[in-house]
Amino acid sequence: MNTIMPPLVSILMPVFRNSFYFQLALKSVLLQTYPNLEIIIRDNTNTNDVQHIVEKEFLPYSKKILYIKNQQSVPRLKVLQQLFNDAKGDFINYLLEEDLFYPTKIQRMMAYYLNDTTETIKLVTSYRQPIDENGNAIPDLIFTARRHNHDAIIDGIAFGDSMIVESNWVGEPSTVLFRKRDLIEPFGQFGGYEFESAYDMGSWMTLFAQGKGVYIKDALSFVRVYPQRHDWRTRMSPIKDWMHLLFYSQSLGFLRNTSFLQKNVMEFIQYIDSILLDNLNPPSPDEVSYLLQCKKRLAGL
Amino acid sequence: MNGQNLPLVSVLIPTFNRAHYFRYALDSVLRQTYANIEIVITDNSTNDETYNIVQPFLQDYPSIKYYRNPENIGPVLNFIKAYELSSGEYINFLMDDDMFHPNKIEKMMPYFINDLNKEISLVTSHRSFVDQNGNLIPDTIYNKQRFHTVAVLNGKQAGDPIISEFNWIGVPSTTLFRREALPAKEEFGTFSGRMYRCGVDCAAWLTLLQKGKMVYIPEVLSYIRLHSGGAGQNRDPIMSMHASLDLMHMLFHSRKNGYLTDEYEFSKAIKTIEDHLMIMKNWFPIDNSQKQEITYYQNCLNIIKVNRDI
Q1: Domain range holding A259?
Q2: Domain finish residue from A204, A230, A256
Q3: In this model, does residue B202 exceed pLDDT 80?
Q4: Same domain, yes or no, for A269 and A133?
Q5: CB distance A61–B257 less than 8 Å?
Q6: Does A100 touch chain B (CB under 8 A)?
Q7: What's residue B2's pLDDT?
Q8: How far apart are CA B56 and CA B253, in angstroms?
Q9: Closest by Cβ to A219, choosing from B74, B249, B303
Q10: Which terminus of chain B is less hemmed in, N or C, by CB atoms within 10 Å?
Q11: Shortest CB distance from B295 goes to which of A27, A28, A136?
């Protein structure tokens, strides 16, 4: 048996909704084969249900779990940032309540960091198996489709470009393992701007700007695809995020490939038009003027 | 035998509201022919019956240590409490409804006493099932004699079948083990850093077998009570869910701890757990969230079958 403990990895679990999925997510952490984990739970719900379950079913049987109750609910991104500050580990992996880890996830991802003596790897992700609301495996969606048939170490700029242009196939917060000190801005922030909905992409960009990313071809987590997942998002929230992503990332050397850039701009304009032309649910006058202003800036690219 | 020269054996009886059977269990320890035994009772009961039974014995037997829990702390933590309160070099749990053969400890201890290099971690034996009235029940596949003569097995030989078949080594009452072989940081009932919720015995045996060998004695040295249904038929959904998580943990942590390195045994273990999950999903009274948990385990098995990434 190995007597030297590898670095501590913090598994950060926000709870926003209910205990139904959360308990199973927690069990998927308890199965992890990586030997040095801490589990931090931030309960942002306004009932005592989750607290009751954790105190009765989990805390007496594990010294690795730290449970914190937010006395008052705070915004979603704030909870993720609180958890980041709670973490004592050298590495971070969020786990949203609806997602699940495969038992070897952390061990297999950490192997890349442990072998990377020059510390050029800044992000490790993997293929993830989509599941439905009942937990059954379902066919891939565009953003989950397997990108490589072998494990790949990819340059950060290329990785970031592909994510911006082709959808967030890098992963949700649950998918990615990163080194704590590499996240030089608060979670969800990139270039001083705090993302409104695509905050995982914001942080992945912060990491890609500093080095390489790894894509592992095997399923190391399960992402739950179900209608309520993005309830908290509005159709306007991606716009500001997208604008910032496009303009700021260019200043860091991303999106130098003009055909990539044009493809992205076109898709972005289509999304804006779909809101402008939505007769059933028309945008407010303020929203219209903001959207038109965005289109104008995009035309200059 | 002169008790002064023999190593101390702790017999640990965690108990919960089962005064009637507990009396027989305690009696079977007091009748042991081995001379240096301490008895540690941790009582989780919510009534006074066990307490009242124990009182007169405490006067006559200073070797009995009795602890009453102020509240029910659940079976797993009650096990650990008894273990922590004991001081013997050798440990034998006794479930409150099981019984020892009068010579159990005396027949098992020589294997430890003569083992000068401390190669042996645990000693187990053939055991009989008994019904509610203490009548012997014919052997089943779960307890039938595994060897006809005394067998010494290495850790892998003894431990692999726990995962790939079933817990053939026995319930806690069956086994006497060396305290030193359980690492200080691993409490009783933990394997690979996790405390088990149902298979605490499996976890303990797997942890002990990493440190040494096992002796199997073909004589019946303990009596295990079956209350209803056949052997191993436990349809309590909560315990069965705990058992499922324990099995998944055992499988995924097997190879890093030296078990199931053989591909055949590894595949057999996957198949055994698949069958267990299938039976639970189809035949147990489980709710939606429990069904979903089983589905998650099945998804994981589908991946490991292909990737074999442990």
Answers
A1: 237-299
A2: A230
A3: yes
A4: no
A5: no
A6: yes
A7: 56
A8: 47
A9: B303
A10: N
A11: A136
Domain co-membership, A15 together with A80: yes
Tell me if chain B has a CB within 8 Å of the CB of A184. no
Query: Does A103 contact B at CB distance below 8 Å?
Result: yes
ipTM of the complex: 0.93
Are A275 and A292 in the same domain?
A: yes
Residue in A with minimal Cα distance to B287: A20
Read off the pLDDT of residues A199-254 as tens digits, 9 standing for 90 and up: 999 999 999 999 999 999 999 999 999 887 777 778 888 899 999 999 999 999 99
B302 reaches A (C-beta below 8 A): yes
Q: List b or e across A174-193, with b for residues whose CB sees 16 or more CB atoms inside 10 angstroms.
A: bbbbbbbebbeebbbbbbeb
For the stretch B285-299, pLDDT in tens is: 899 999 999 999 999
Q: Provide the number of CB pairs (under 8 Å) joining chain A to chain B.
A: 66
On the question of pLDDT at B55 being above 70, the answer is: yes
**Residue in A22, A33, A39 to test binding to B, most B beta-carbons within 10 Å:** A33
H helix or E strand, kind and range, residue B218: strand B213-225
Residue A68 domain-assigned? yes
A134 plus A210 within the same structural domain: yes
Q: Domains in chain B and their CATH numbers?
A: 3-225 (3.90.550.10), 237-307 (no CATH)
A219 touches chain B (CB under 8 A): yes
By C-alpha distance, the chain A residue nearest B80 is A61
CB contact, 8 Å: B182 with chain A? no
The answer to whether A36 faces chain B, any CB pair under 8 Å, is: no
B249 interfacial to chain A (CB closer than 8 Å): yes
Instruction: Give percent of chain B above pLDDT 70.
Output: 95
For B77, the closest of A23, A33, A60 (CB atoms) is A60
Q: Are residues A157 and A267 in the same domain?
A: no
* Mean pLDDT, residues A160-181 taken together: 94
Residues of A with CB below 8 A from B293's CB?
A: 24, 27, 135
Q: Do B210 and A20 touch (CB under 8 A)?
A: no
Look up residue B309 and give its two tokens. Answer: 């990434």
Q: What is the pLDDT of residues A17-65, one digit of tens each?
A: 877 899 999 999 999 999 999 999 999 999 999 999 999 999 999 999 9
Name the pLDDT band for B128 (thresholds 50, 70, 90): very high
Q: Are A224 and A132 in contact (CB under 8 A)?
A: yes
